[in-house]
Design a protein that fits this description.
The protein is mainly alpha-helical. Helix content is 80%, strand content 0%. Helix 3 runs antiparallel to helix 4, helix 5 runs parallel beside helix 7 and helix 7 packs antiparallel against helix 8. The radius of gyration is 19 Å and the shape is globular.
Length: 205
């Protein structure tokens, strides 16, 4: 059973997800040491893995519970690392960092309440959440690509990109909040989470 679970989880999408996690450390190192080009390339590779893991999982039906748990977690860790590093270098990005922190804290709190209090499964990633993630990478990539690689800075462009990103994050938060309350008040058994049953399955595996 353990070997079967290992084989199921050891697939291309999950491997790409793990790679995205491991890329956080070199990105932080190179970025904070002003090696922006290398950091930019690492961030681009991270973004590509984020797009590919979902596409491959859907096309080849390689969804796993482990992947569904790790993908959003590593997305959040990557985005948090990028936002903090960028905000240290450029304070103009702090408002977006604040929006990001509020959004993630509320979503994590909601998930914990659903699991611990309501014994229900949190909803998975949605298109509006992925859209906010893509805009996050694109906006930060353009701003620092222009500034750090081509030595060009445009405050108006930065404000526009950051405003769009913040709006997408807020929109995603509102949509996820609707899903949260829907699940919390739903009687559909597909949302039920039997923690004891999950623990028993793990012990048997």
């Amino acid at each position: 059973m353990k070997k079967q679970n290992w084989n199921k989880n050891f697939n291309v999408p999950n491997t790409l997800t793990l790679i995205r996690c491991f890329l956080i450390i070199p990105f932080v190192y190179y970025f904070m040491n002003d090696r922006y080009l290398i950091a930019f390339i690492i961030l681009a590779v991270s973004g590509i893995t984020d797009m590919l893991d979902g596409l491959i999982a859907r096309k080849f039906h390689q969804f796993t519970e482990l992947g569904e748990m790790l993908d959003p977690l590593f997305d959040k860790l990557t985005q948090a690392s990028v936002a903090v590093c960028f905000s240290i270098k450029e304070p103009i990005l702090i408002p977006v960092l604040a929006v990001f922190i509020v959004k993630e804290v509320l979503m994590i709190t909601g998930a914990v309440i659903l699991i611990s209090k309501n014994k229900k499964k949190p909803g998975g990633s949605k298109w509006y959440g992925k859209l906010a993630t893509v805009l996050f990478y694109v906006s930060f990539g353009i701003i620092f690509g222009l500034k750090c690689i081509w030595n060009y800075e445009n405050i108006k462009l930065s404000i526009i990109l950051l405003s769009i990103t913040a709006a997408a994050m807020i929109y995603a938060l509102v949509r996820y909040a609707k899903v949260y309350f829907m699940i919390m008040h739903s009687d559909d058994p597909k949302y039920n989470l039997d923690i004891q049953e999950v623990m028993d399955k793990k012990k048997k595996a």
